[in-house]
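Review form for a predicted model. The reviewer records the input and the model, then writes brief findings.
Reviewer: anonymous (R2)
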Amino acid sequence: MRKPNYNSMTPRVAEIFENLRADDLEDKYKEIADIVGFENFIKLVENYAGNDIYIPQKYELYRHEMYKAILDEYDGTNIKRLAVAYGISKKTIYNILSGHLLKKKKKAKNEQMEGQMSILDLDFYRIT
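Model under review:
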């Protein structure tokens, strides 16, 4: 059963919504329903009605995993091979590597040394 999630939905309107079929949709909505399926389209409407939804490019879905694979496979000498294997430029490989190194460096800088006191360890209320 579909959930009528509009406060102003009268019993009659709820009945119409419950009996709605793909053929009843306006053309601008039929295309989406054809792609995702009618019941999934209804779920989108029930959860995101009135909101803009960003649909990412396919690349955005696998980019993170691809970058991890590149970092795992990098051996210091294979930038060109990685670029060819993943269909990206050598410059992109360099950017992935440098971004990873910067994150590592920043993380290492922020980590506290063993035995080192943090400013949060001080009790400012007792200092006079």
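Findings: The chain is about 60% helix and 0% strand.
Further findings: Residues 124-128 have pLDDT under 50 and may be disordered.
Recommendation: see findings above.
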